[in-house]
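Q: Please design a sequence for this.
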């Protein structure tokens, strides 16, 4: 498959989990990929190495998406290297699950700084610097459709991401840019599995009629499609990718 040849795609938080899988699959479709990471340099370098070993094209660039100056520098470096950015995948995110009564000011600030301000920072750059006829894909969550105790602050951040998605689509549509969000269900990454007893994972898996949680590959294929011109007429939508969980 080479339907993304000539496209330059920035994936935030691509050192691990869903983002790493997205980066590899985009490169298989012949996109040139910018593998952004915050702290996990070795993992990001390993994603780039895997892509290059398979004949693809990628570079790793460090930037904390919650810092506006670092995001500007991320765009500067990516455009200096590849000449343009066609597609932005806003994947970087964290999840802190606590009852609202136990959530500290720091928990709240960290989640909003990375999940919401991070997306805001990249959208603000993308508004003028993403290439005409490009695409934006933001990561939300299918947990927004449930009402699970302990997910309050997390779904507050992802609901904000969905609203930014819709409004941004109206602001950049005149340049041919389509903007969507993808809402994975529980997916087998450190973000979801860390600290969870197997019985909790099994209970969440049983919410899907397929009786399993997702794998990063289940999510990545949909993002590759949304990054392609075949998905151009999908705009301002939120797409659940959750095995029918919700
Ligand atoms: P992981 O924890 O596996 O990976 C998170 C990635 O985000 C890492 O590459 C990490 O890089 C990066 N990251 C974290 N903070 C920052 C930052 N400030 N700046 C730049 N990069 C950062 O998470 P997942 O792959 O599971 O999640 C990816 C996205 O999917 C998130 O937005 C998440 O909310 C969403 N999602 C996940 C679900 C799941 O069940 N796994 C379900 C629904 C949505 P580094 O290590 O270098 O900091």
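A: Design:
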């Amino acid at each position: 498959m080479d339907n993304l040849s000539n496209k330059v795609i920035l994936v935030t938080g691509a050192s691990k989990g869903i983002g790493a899988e997205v980066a590899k699959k985009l490169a298989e479709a012949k996109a040139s990929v910018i593998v952004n990471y915050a702290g996990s340099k070795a993992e990001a370098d390993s994603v780039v190495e895997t892509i290059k070993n398979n004949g693809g094209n990628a570079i790793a660039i460090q930037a904390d998406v919650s810092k506006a100056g670092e995001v500007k520098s991320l765009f500067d470096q990516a455009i200096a290297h590849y000449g343009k950015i066609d597609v932005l995948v806003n994947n970087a995110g964290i999840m802190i699950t606590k009852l609202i009564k136990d959530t500290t000011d720091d928990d709240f600030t960290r989640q909003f700084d990375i999940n919401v301000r991070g997306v805001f920072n990249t959208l603000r750059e993308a508004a003028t610097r993403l290439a005409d006829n490009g695409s934006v894909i933001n990561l939300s969550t299918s947990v927004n459709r449930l009402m699970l105790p302990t997910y309050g602050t997390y779904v507050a951040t992802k609901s904000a991401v969905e609203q930014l998605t819709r409004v941004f689509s109206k602001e950049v549509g005149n340049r041919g840019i389509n903007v969507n969000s993808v809402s994975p269900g529980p997916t087998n990454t450190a973000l979801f599995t860390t600290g969870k007893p197997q019985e909790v994972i099994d209970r969440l898996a049983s919410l899907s009629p397929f009786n399993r949680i997702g794998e990063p590959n289940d999510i990545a294929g949909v993002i590759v499609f949304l990054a392609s011109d075949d998905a151009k007429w999908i705009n301002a939508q939120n797409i659940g990718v959750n095995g029918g969980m919700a």
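Q: Thanks. Anything notable?
A: Residues 12-19, 36-40, 64-66, 91-95, 114, 118, 139, 141, 184, 186-187, 189-192 surround NDP (CB under 6 Å). Residues 8-240 form a domain with the Rossmann fold fold (CATH 3.40.50.720).
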